[in-house]
Design a protein that fits this description.
This protein is mainly alpha-helical. Helices cover about 70% and strands about 0% of the residues.
Length: about 400
Amino acid sequence: MICFVLKNSGLIVLFTKQTLSKNSMKLKIQSVQQFLLVLTIFLYPFLAVGHVLYLIPQFLLILVTLLKGEIKYNSNLLIILFLGVLSFISSLLVELNTVSPSYDLPVKMIVNIISIIVLLSDVNFKIAPSILKQIQFVVLAWLFITVSIYLKNGTNSIGIIISSIAAGDNIGSSQLYGAATPIEEVFLTKNITSMFTVAVFAIYLYFCSSFKRNINVLMFLIFFMTTVLFLSRQGILAFLVIFLLYKFNKFGKIGKSVVIGFGVASVLYIFKKLFDLKSSEDGASQRLDLWLYFANNYSDFIFGVGQNKLSFILMSNVGIDNFHMFFMNQIGAYGLIHFIFFSLFLVAVYLTQSNKNRILLVVAYFLNVLFQTFGYEYGNLFLFMIMVIPLVDQKIKNT
């Protein structure tokens, strides 16, 4: 009888060790997945090697997730897959029927759609609180590199901008573009990089809220300085919107009213100082011309004309190669049907999740694409990739 008990005890110990070993291995794989995810975020804004460095960890992340063999399919995932495929096919068909096809956007779209679906189907990949420190390192690295670039090239241009603001003068878009020239040798355009920084700021706030942590003043200033140094008016306004939304969700009725009042006053002040809609050289006034052109000619784009033809039409008539408006670009290039399919894809992804803080990611996505791109880039859709990954279920005290 004693022998039997000892044997069974040994089996229990062996089983426990095997279970712990498996759990340990799962945690290590999750750690690798999280590291690859953060690495894609860090590398994305850099122009080095033709702006493809971030694709290496992105493909590795997909590969590791698939090789784990822990993919689980359900009806929601199949619906999302169906809408994603329809979005890709509808854009591809338009390009195939143009005289000068471009497959750049459809390829980017399907790669990032696949990334979202693969991550959504992984039953065991969970983001740990350690990602907060990893993101802190990423933003600090960007800030250090940006400051170093300005110091290397001289700070006269930045000094002029600061002096003008201090004197109460209005700043035009041409001044900002001129001052930001040095950083565009290392990073993507100042607007795209600044907005990407805002998106990462939204992710950081999303994790802080989900893990029950407050963002401290130092990290707020680091994110803000990094965003501001790219000299993007859109980035500054978007940063303000994301931060106020974060604060809005944390306050009661009186606090919410104060946040709204402060937000409106701040936006009006920034708009007055940094925007000049009366000037034809101001980027904001040029966008108004683009949007007016779409409103007057929308029937020409209902079925889509393809990326290259859209650029040609706009350059010939307005002098800019895209509408700088999310839905106008999508409809113009690939038509209304594609726009509906892709919008439904995003809605379906959003509805699979229940974390109330995900609104920060959605708002950051639309702030990123609304006045800038088509919305298919990794730098946009990575917000939905973050959204579909569960978080470690663990309560953490405020710090």
